[in-house]
## 1
Amino acid sequence: MYDLRQFRPMLYLVLILGISGFAVSASTPGLWLMAMLVIAGNALLLRSGRWVVLPGFATGAITVGALLYAGYGFFSSLEPPLMFIGEFLVYLQLVKLFEQRANRDAAQILVLSLLLMVAAAINTTSLAFAVVLVLYLFTALYCCLLFHLKVEADRAQSQFPVPAPGIPLSTLRQDRRFLSRSMRRLTALVAVVSLAVAAVVFLFFPRGRPGAALGQLQLPYGPTMTGFSERMDYQHLDRIRQDPRVVGHVTLWRDLRPWRSGQSLYLRGATYDVYGVEPRLWSRRPQAMESREITAGVRQLLVRSGLAGQHLIHQKISLNIAGGTVFALPGPVFFQAPRDLSLRINPSDETLRIAEQHQPVLEYEVWSTLAPQRPPAALAASTSSGSTSDPDLLSEVRLFTRQAPIVGPLGMRRVPEGSPREEDAQVAKAIETYLRRNYGYTLDLSGLHQATAGGASAGRDPLLVFLRETRQGQCGLFAGAMTVMCQSLGLQARLVVGYRCDDADYNPIGGYYVVRHSHAHAWVEVLTPAGWLTYDPTSDQDARPGQAGGWWRTVRNLLDFFEYKWAENVVAFDRQAQDDLIGAVDRSLALSALRAEQSVQSWRRWFNTAEFWKLAYQVMGNVLGILIGLLFLLLVGLVVGYIAWRWRLWRRARRIGLDTLPSQQRLALSRQLAFYDQLTQLLERHRLRRPRHLTALEFARALCALPVQSYHDVRRLTRIMYRVRFGGAVVPPARQHRLHAAVARVATALQP
Amino acid sequence: MPAPGPNIRRRPARKLEITFGGWVYLGMTLFMGLAAVNVQVSLLFGTFGLMVGVVVVSFMLSRLVLRRLKVQRLLPSNAVVGRPLTIPYEFTNHKRFWPSLSVSVREVGSRAFARQPAAYLLHAAPRTTATVPAQAMPLQRGLQPLDALDLQSSFPFGFLRRRVRVRHPQSLLVWPALARVHPRIIQQCLAAEHTAAANPSVQPRIGGSDEFYGVKEFRVGDNPRFLNWRRSARTGVLVANEMTQVAPPRLMLLVDTYATDAASLELVERAVAMAASLATTALERGLGVGLHAWADSWVTVSPSRGKRHQRDLLSHLACLPRNQQQDVMALLASGGPWMRQQVTPVLLSPHALPLEAGMPAGRRCVVLAADAPASRQSFVFDPEVDFAACAAT
């Protein structure tokens, strides 16, 4: 009786959108494909009538199996645990599809789907997911509306049973009229109100620091495979996976104009100059840090002076990673942030770090010179080569370096050394060239892992194994090897980690560089008399030039631009942005009020002048004249219209045969019988004129040649005319419209 | 017949409550808010805001759905105890733009039915009228008052349930239960006619068109088809044939409603129901039926036939009140004039009583006692009929 057929397709759509959103968030196309196949199979079975409910033991077994699988993945993998929880939720929903018995199962599917989307929303903030989330929310709203109606209707049918045979079909059907239109209106209202409240909450709900309410409850997850890490070691040597997720965006200006470098950008994060064999960890010698309190919106000088004539590269950087490292191009001079924070500067390597935990998205601006760092003389003199905990490693590396035709006689320098010498740059360049030409780049470090699994003895150190045996690895091995090789020859070298972007990562639409996890990189800086020069020994990592334009490239840039704006305006919307918004609204309102007051004052002053009154009289005179003219025309028009209307009624009365009646009755009937006049004129146009010896009813009965429906319509209209003419019935305006519509149907039927 | 009353809404009592599902949803919303505050992810704030918006819109829509929604009870002219009654409820949505969905209506405070009638309206578009039926089982005979209706809706999501009470006073006339009467009861009544020594009730009477009775002088207005031309030619005066009509048997139901205790009340109800059943069956057979009973004064309905007369009889029987004043002897005494006429008296009494002393000489009376086993076999009521409930006040 109350079959709301839309509910099941909408439920399936909600399910599909939820799983799709999760797949977008977790980048799991395989899971998505499997889920779609299962859903399609279920739908086909339902449609063909062959679907049967899964028995309880089967669903229990599948659920336990899914739980075990998710648990195994949770404990064995380095993926975020939320992803495995989401996978388990997907499996649960698929099992529920085959277990639908009552309305509560559909409710459970909806709740599971919502939880799945919550898990996905915590994991990702990408624009693509946001689009799917919005579609999902609106679809789920509509589905919940239908679900409520279905539940209530089923409950009513069970509690208030009325035998159907005793009820006319029209009564059963009448409550379905315009149901679709009503549902659309209500869904629109629900969507508009919900969106408005969501916008208000999003903009004005008080923001704070993560973990402020319940502490850091997020489950810890393993480090990203390719990506920046503040811990530089060779402990986890295994097959590394590229992570294409966006970390941040960098916009450059030079001399106040947008700037595209055309070369690789090296965003320095942290430096390491001491390599410990046990554990295989890079570290930094203790150095004095300087603190700066950065005031929101104020540009502050950092470390350099004497910048006359130097072009500064202005960088606006937004990053979406945890940690306190601040990335910037070499030679930072000024720093500015949109909110107050404490900045710590290492003057020896010009690396920057913020003291407190920041919001998920950190935005700041840095002005850099791009020039190599020139350390103070005292600091340069006191800097000695990096010392490892195992001198044997250095001597082994030195032996390797001198034996191999790498640096030639330049490598036979005496150790320890003093201040940097002119040939240090040549030595470093030779080492860089040697590594680039003779070693290969790979992310598969399983061979290295097996070779070094025996222990961290000097002979099995990963760097030595890399140099002597495997001869292939990732950028950390290349940079670490070069650093150790330089140090073994008495050069001052340090390993630098950060991000490297090429021209291929530049988005011309948004005018920024896209920084991804896969752009995390390690390179080397060597101290020379010209300063700390940058060397990148990693092979197969030549700078990728900007790609030629094409429609697909343009589309990708456009999508990435939307993603950037989404991250900038929505994802990065924090407490500071909220305060700025409220302040901007407040200032705007105050300014508007001030302007309005000024405007009122100026008008008031003008009102008091004689010129105004003179103009006013003149205008009033003109306006009055126009008004009187219009009034006169209106009056004339009304009179003419009234006369025309009366004349039309009189003519109609004459045609219908009402002219013998008193005037008042004639007019009233003439207004009521407009539909009959229209009908008679229509029939006359088709040469069907009523003979004088036939009454209207007899004439209507005689029109057997008309189409069947038109014949019945004409007879019905004639009977209505009789009721009005002779029975004193009154036709309300709404019915008049329907009668005219009936005449229009007759006209349509009579058309050739 | 009771006329439909106006749809009066005088300060309808409104009530708003949160359902179990609503509490669950509020809990989920709170959880989402805490998660958003803790994680500080913008998307979660947006989702939290959306969930709060859903609560706000639930509040708005629950009010909107019941606003300007008129409901009218379309009562039939009468009902019968023990037989399902379909009561249509007409919902008129006077709103210009917004529909009304998922509204249930329930009778309030009516004791006339085994279960309060309730109906469910799925959808009423703006400026339309929808009728939804509800089924009820009347318990008691008589003029049953229906006072108020409860409208409630938990649209759109089932989180909030809003209830509005609307006064809509009406009355429903419920006839007594009608049983299947065994044919021997009718035969018994007819046999009583024929046993009288002088039984004019079966004699033909003039004024019909059945058989030739005699001739009479033709008067203006008589049927000219009955003119007897031969006799008129012979006598020189226009004469017409006079024909007979067979007078059908007529029953006079004497209903004894005297009762002094609860057990007797139940039997009185059974007796009244038996009278209604007998009257209906007899009228369907073409017999004339009359009624004589005490209803705070002596009520007498002359024997007649036809559907209208049947409705009148049943209405009178439905409205018979409790009688603690006039017993069966008084009933017989007051029905004396009818006893002497050409009718067959049928006494329906709660108990079997000897009545020869009360009967006029030569008159036989058919006595049907409610407590007699033979009556229970002759009058078969529907299983849903509960005379104890009928007797309850």
## 2
Amino acid sequence: MSDTRDVCIVAQWEFGRFFKWKDQLISLALFLLVSGVWAGAALVAGSRGSTVTIAISGIDVQPPAGGRFRFVPAAPDDATRAAALRRGDVQGLLSRRPDGRFDLIVAKEPRYRSELAALLGDVVRRERLEATGVTPEALQRILEPPALDVRFADPARERIGRAEKIAAGVCVGIMLMAVFTSLSYLLIGITGEKQLRVTESVISAISPQAWIDGKVLGITAYSLVSAANVALGLSLVGLAAQLASGFAWPSAALRPAVALVLLLYTMLGLLLWNAFFAAVAATVNDMYTSSRSSLTFLPLLPVVLSVAVIRDPDGLVARFLALFPLTSAPALPMRMVLSDPGLLEIGCSLAFLAGAVWLMRRMAGRIFELGILLYGKEPTLAEMVRWATERRDR
Amino acid sequence: MDAASVRAHGVSKRFSGHVAAERLSFEVRRGEVFALLGPNGAGKTTTVRMLIGIIRPDEGHIDVPGEGPARGRLHPDRTGYLPEDRGLYQEIPILRSLVYFGRLRGLDRRESTRRACEWLERMGLLDRRHDRLDALSKGNQQRVQFIAAVLHRPALAILDEPFSGLDPVSQEFFLDVVRDLKASGTTVLLSSHQMDLVERIADRVLLLNHGREILSGSVGELRAGLDPRLRLRVTLEQAADAAVLRADADVADIAGDGPEFRLTLRTGVQAPQFLARLVTRVPLTAIGTDAPRLHDVFIRAVRDDEARIAGRLS
């Protein structure tokens, strides 16, 4: 029987072992719920309006255009003013003392306090300037804010807005989630097989390399499906945000090339880490007691390093991280979202990553072959390196 | 066609200086039940694992006729393996697990399902095919494990300690299954230290101690090799009549303290004549032959070997 057939059978088995429609649908339903609640809450808030109505007396103040304040004249008597405040017709009663200080009477904590203070500051400044005899036209010119147009020397940088940075962070977050999903299932699966003594039955039927390849492929496929489900869920949340508050999708997130590269790098990055952790898991009897469990934090390292890409997407560090196989999976897609790496850079990065995946797969297979049948003793790091590098015939 | 299903040529294996197998040479012939016997730690499982190809011998090689010398490994599709360390996926329905193992051994999904259902029916577990393995009793889990080993109708079935942990009823059941496998043309290699079961089904045996061969041959040859003299088991009406037996010139040895005695006759004495004379002299309630058991052969051979080792060391 060919190894390819064995790999496919194991991959199907591993995928089916962990994939459950019910879990995926529950995850999606939770996203739908969050999206629905968010959109609903925002729409309700929108329909009620966020306008703050303030009743004023003895103050000449104009609300700025597009602002949320609305000023109405206060009722002449205290009882009517208090009743309006109680009913919620107005959110505050604003008056001015003879010494120039303002009084604001409210029914509950005014969250608009700082905005109102800034507005009243403008009123006071305008009064003081008018007192100096400045003409209204001159006063208008004085208060007019200066015009500042920002243009980027590199047009590619122009689109790096907050939304793009969030999109880059979300991409890396999803990738990280996929890596940790794989990692946990690999560790649970392989150490479980060792504890249940399933290993000999399988190893007698297929080669260790076919077994690890199938495992890595099956669990990678499972993690990709889970990640796609999360991405779909986040898109629903994005749609809800768009509907409720006019959220603008980052331009990079809508480019098919970015989506393709993201998928490719997520897949290769997963294969790389999964091969590594399959080999580690094969040498461990119980993950809860093994010192090797600290290795599970390793995939965080490339992500932490990739923060450099967000800070300076075209810097030397970012370019290196996008080429280096252990960090390129998060770094290059981030560079694509935040900048424009050339085709040559993308090609080289992909080639290095694919080569690293192949190399890791071979070394992991050798460690797996010996480690998977080892009970009660964990090999040392030196032994693992020797296993990974020595040539065997099988 | 080569008469051998698999041959071991001087295979040795050491683990951290400890000799697990030392220059073992033997062949398993097509269609026979071949038993690897030995006390715990004799090297049976190591030998089986080398045959399967899970571990490589440090010296020597395994020859698999028809597979070519380079591969040196039994073909997975034509070999079934019941490991000593048993285990299947506990949380997965048993039919699904069996179909998976059938597919790993070369069957397609449909054929694997069909054969798994056939075997489950034979084992009385068909109606539990969708149960998780951990919902079954230990004995039934062993039955499922056995199915996983032979589902694909292997030409050679290697069963490492197939009777361990089984109750007497299940042991009888598995003896019948092994006989059926043999009848259907499957060569069976099993390792065990349960001599009373092995001698009922094995054609030939290889006895190991400390990784070395100390005896080999057919069960009959080994029994005869232990002591060719005829043995009888007699039960006397009165134990006092044992004196008559002790005085008989044809009796070389008598053991027991009555009313049942085990007699070893002198070389050349024929049973019919001796018994005809005996019944006229003492009243008996039961008579039977008392052939040496494989157990006795095993104990004697291992003790002799231990004595040899002790002598060499001193």
